[in-house]
Amino acid sequence: MVVATVLQAAQASLAVASTSRCRREGSVGAQCGTVVGASSRARRGTVSVKASSSSSDSKDDEASTSNAVTKMLQKCATCAAMTAALLMPLSTAAAAVAFERGPAISELSVLISGPPIKDANALLRYALPINNKSIKEVQKSLEEITDEMRIPGEKALGPVGQSVRQAARVLNQNKTQILADIADSKKQEGEQLLTALNEGLQDYQKQLESKDRSIVFPKQKELLRVVGDIEEAMVAKFPFEIPEEFADRPILKGRATLEMKINVKDNPNVKDAVLQIVVDGYNAPVTAGNFVDLVERHFYDGMEIQRSDGFVVQTGDPEGPAEGFVNPATGLVRTVPLEIMVDGEKAPIYGSTLEELGMYKARTKLPFNAFGTMAMAREEFDNDSGSSQVFWLLKESELTPSSANILDGRYTVFGYVTENEDLLADLKVGDVIESIRVVNGLDNLVNPSYKAGAV
């Protein structure tokens, strides 16, 4: 069928250029739009083929459409990746040759099975290097409230109340176990957070007695933030050693929260967009460190949005011939390697895509699931050519499980937009980044090059 042909073309294109770079040229954006349009027409054509009595004409039309789509996909491997990701989670052929020695599935995998997690803050919580089942059960109970609130009217408040009571019950029964996993240097902070969480859950139950739906989501967000703080307090130290070849680079040993302000032009509905970004050094320390270091150099301040095509928003290409950050100390473009953390592994994989390693079943710790997923762009045939160009994905994973789409394991994800991510859809080429600044976590950056005298 035509849809299968589209997928085969996408996979063939990716076999030739699986490391396609998200470029900013207008022609690429046009190709993306054309491919999606052709894919939609192909799917409609498939339906008409089934209903038509003239099989020969249908086959000719199908072949013509297939050839056209194949050519377009071959021109833009990124478009192929996006198209395939939207159409099918994982091909049958790929599943048949899946890497059998995949990483061990952690005990927490039971808690995150089911539909893909699309909330950026939840993805960040599950990506922390901890393994305390009790606090994760509290987290899961509170996260389930989002789905329960899809029930209309007051009927939703019954299941919501059950989830809150379940969270409180697990917390009270396992408080000692949870506290035991708090880092020794953070015990006092951990005790305060556990007290705040317990009191917050009790207060939540009382508020729900009012049958007021409007209180549900704000209180849920507040308590999940406390849960996240407890989980971060369980990380005693940075969990692995950076490879020697990258050890002298700017490294983010932890997480950092950033605020990005963008001046939006020619949009009567939005003038200034302020987005919160969390970059994750636990899972991409070299890439995240590189970005935070560039932020502290004010590299992005005053830079325009250079691509916005409905798939991604991208920036980071400086003026001049270089396509990345030129280190003034060396006169050379500073690059970062492809950096992929796989669930069950102790450290990231560097330099190779999961596809190249045959790890088709591996789950990435930071998947392309959330609207506003932040990743590093790179050259088409060079995995280790990322520098300063970054992109944000304008898509949520509705049907695709984590790490079973075309993008996971091919680009370094190193953070998510955690507040006002919807504003990304309003950004256009030419809108200006007024500033990006670190509001929390700068002390996690080691080997900074932005300081006087550093290279």
TrEMBL record:
Coiled-coil ranges (or none): 187-214
Keyword Thylakoid: yes
Taxonomic path: Eukaryota, Viridiplantae, Streptophyta, Embryophyta, Bryophyta
Keyword Isomerase: yes
Domain PPIase cyclophilin-type positions: 275-455
Cited Pfam families: CYP38_PsbQ-like, Pro_isomerase
Superkingdom of source: Eukaryota
A GO MF term: peptidyl-prolyl cis-trans isomerase activity
EC number assigned by the record: 5.2.1.8
Matching SUPFAM superfamilies: Cyclophilin-like, Oxygen-evolving enhancer protein 3
Protein name listed in UniProt: peptidylprolyl isomerase
Region (Disordered): 46-65
Compositionally biased residues, Low complexity: 46-56
Record-linked Gene3D superfamilies: Cyclophilin-like, Oxygen-evolving enhancer protein 3 (PsbQ), four-helix up-down bundle
Alphabetic keyword roster: Coiled coil, Isomerase, Rotamase, Thylakoid
CDD domains in the cross-refs: cyclophilin_TLP40_like
